[in-house]
């Protein structure tokens, strides 16, 4: 089957209207363009994200269903608290962003390739340097054992990827993220697409239209920059 995709202009960071997104494959909206900071911010501000593999053109998506964690839906249950104590874990924000993205990019079991290509890592590192992209890190002593990264659009955290080298470290990072957000915002987290891992954590699937409405409510609300200053996260936040 032949499909038509708009090709983005190198000098225009705008995107087609979301109703032009394909139903098969679901949410595919456009191709081409670049991974400049301006284009990425434009994409996330309009409910769009890049996702493509090595050898593919740059592809931009806005799926018909989005996976989100509403405020106060992520908590440390008994098992996760035991894991924190057992492994003597501690947490930080924005102290190892590049390392987190490299670990997220590493091929997973039964997944030989990665979509977090070197140019993608570099693009998000630039967003990080400009204060738009952030990471949560999970440490065992001085070893990074889990974490996640994503883009903050107003008061909505758009999660990109996570990893763990210890059981449940990614789950714990996700909970710590929402606890950290709650200090300055409601705590909404966008996880793009539902999957079994997120569903196990209680993610909610909402229609694109509802997601865009939420995005419009949150994207112009600000968060003080000091909240994302690199440093440790107090243990009482993680234990909340």
TrEMBL record:
Subcellular location: Cytoplasm
Highest rank taxon of the organism: Bacteria
Molecular function terms, GO-annotated: transferase activity
EC number: 2.3.2.6
Reaction(s) the record says it catalyses: N-terminal L-arginyl-[protein] + L-leucyl-tRNA(Leu) = N-terminal L-leucyl-L-arginyl-[protein] + tRNA(Leu) + H(+); N-terminal L-lysyl-[protein] + L-leucyl-tRNA(Leu) = N-terminal L-leucyl-L-lysyl-[protein] + tRNA(Leu) + H(+); L-phenylalanyl-tRNA(Phe) + an N-terminal L-alpha-aminoacyl-[protein] = an N-terminal L-phenylalanyl-L-alpha-aminoacyl-[protein] + tRNA(Phe)
Coiled-coil residue spans: none
Keyword field contains Transferase: yes
Keywords of this entry: Acyltransferase, Cytoplasm, Transferase
Its job: Functions in the N-end rule pathway of protein degradation where it conjugates Leu, Phe and, less efficiently, Met from aminoacyl-tRNAs to the N-termini of proteins containing an N-terminal arginine or lysine.
Similarity comment text for this entry: Belongs to the L/F-transferase family.
Protein name: Leucyl/phenylalanyl-tRNA--protein transferase
Organism of derivation: Rheinheimera aquimaris
Annotated gene: aat
